[in-house]
Predict the structure.
Amino acid sequence: MSRLLIVSNRLPVSVSVNRGRVALGRSTGGLATGLERVHRDGDSLWIGWPGTQGSLGAELDASMHARMAARRLVPVHLEPEEVSRFYEGFANEVLWPSFHYLLDRVPIEIQDWQLYEQINDRFAEVIARHHRPGDLVWIHDYHLMRLPALLRARVPSARIGFFLHIPFPPSDLFRTLPGRRPLLEGILGADLVGFHTAGYLRHFAASTLRILGLPVEIDRVEVGGRTVRVGVFPMSVDAAHFAALAATPRVSKDAEALRVDPRCQILVGIDRLDYTKGIPRRLLAFERLLARHPELHGRVRLVQVASPSRSVVRAYREFRATVDRLIGRIHGAFATPSWAPVHYIHRSFSERQVAALYRAADVMLVTPIRDGMNLVAKEFVASRVDDEGVLVLSEFAGAADELAGALMVNPYDLDEAANTFHRALTMAPEERQRRMRTMREHVARHDVYRWTRRFIEALERSSTVTSLTGPADLPGPPGAEALASLREARRLVLLLDYDGTLVPFASRPELAGPDPALLDLLTALTARPATEVHIVSGRTRESLSGWFGQLAAHLHAEHGLASRSADGTRWRSLALPDLSWRERVAPILAQFAERTPGAFVERKGAGLAWHWRVADPEFAAHQADELRLHLSELLSSSPAAVLVGDKVIEVRPVGVSKGQIVGPIAERVPEGTAWVAIGDDTTDEELFAALPEGGIAIHVGSRPSRARYRLSDVAAVRALLASLVPTVPT
């Protein structure tokens, strides 16, 4: 198995100095807990900020590095101001509330984007320094969303995974971020991107489409010649560990001690003191429960543990004051000398203390207003080795997609929440146990080790394809041998697609003309001894004649329907089949173009094309799917074919394909001629399939292709062609 580089904002240890000596304590948090044993028992490095701000002094700094090296930990150092502006500032004042759908908590003036970029680049530098060929790099969470792309720029061959531990917001919310485009481009520097739920993945897909114009196709997105895989990987907990801990005599005894009055039922909430966790609404719902059910006075108690969180951030200080006021209000209305309805604890608990609370709880309240997953819910379930207890779970937590045995609640509906609390307190034992057993079986089967294993296995499978990227970057013998055979060939036939191969895609057909550098390159290629250059395009003959009429190149328009030889003689067309279908198709394409702003119809000699490159990408993608299905049904018995290209749907006569041009060329060129076809679209697959034996097919981009070789983009195509005539600049 490959070595794993785990990368997170914080290391799984906290550094402190006690009596002049460096001490490494254990960090809290789901990520640190979830990956602790994976790191400890595996071949890995963990890279992150150690929690120190500035230098500890030469002696203590050396001691810290030595102790960390023994645990395979690599620190990334941050200065105090950087911590304040990067972590407490941009990451937690801008990204955190935005991704939790709370735009009202985002500062009016957003600052420190440049510092966010700089810190991510510093992480990239440290990773690159420790990276070895074959390593897997697993980057975690919203603090480091720019890191995958920055690392790829430093180590192009790195295998990079990125996992987002918080929600990904709907596209309309994400688009409000000033750094929305570079954030997406940063994430897409990875080979594999993971989310907790399918909903978060859908939101990410909508954003990549609307902002970058890149559609996510089921489990992948094509980015700059690479395939980026995307997937759902719900994180979990070490279920066996929590079950074993909860079953120990010490924890059982502690749980019994918490239940001093057997007549008093206990509701438990364990959260970070964070405004996303829904504590105020939980308290209001509990207040409403007490107001509606006087019989519960003295018979129920809410134990709320709130671990300190980001106390230096003003929004969190204000939030704590709100919680304090609500608890005071509840006590003022309902408390008696012998009964306090809320037992509020504002400090962190040890794992053993938490397990005792899980065991003691009659009802566990996990009611965030938005949460990526919420591992507390799964820890509680894993700890209930007695199959007792009821889980009340917010439908806005990622865990709600998995824990079907929980009582789901909308935390914004206080009446519903209060009623659900009451139902949980009065649930029959048989139903409690049935629900808990269902959840315990799921959590035990889908534990944190399964989550880690699934992600790493998926990352290992995401490997780059064989690539021809130019003389300087050939990946190995297959590419090098192919390129050498082209340079050394005595006779050469080049079959070149145009859009997406020789030039980038343009918003409209008339804007896609060749630039001077391309014309110079093609002129040099046509002057190369014993070399035929064929431009094989879906463009009309008028366009190709206007652009390349003066070149000594063979031109093939409308996917081979019409051809012109290199000597400039007149165009020759295939016999046109029945085109009566155009009368039915043209009005449909016009209708779809009219209702899709930015889309338009292009009329060709024999075919029709519906373009949507400049339309709203998300809306137009849905329209394109509907149009494709409609045309497929309409033309099922007609001599016409529906062809889906890159943001274009084309209808053309059956039997017309780029592959048709190969036969006539093969009849007149001598044996031993080397053949090369380069293209980026589905139409080029027909050309690749028709190549003579030994012909070299090169696909541009990373979509599935029959081609053996690939080039990343237009620039790489031009670099390859220029290498055949070295005097031409790229």
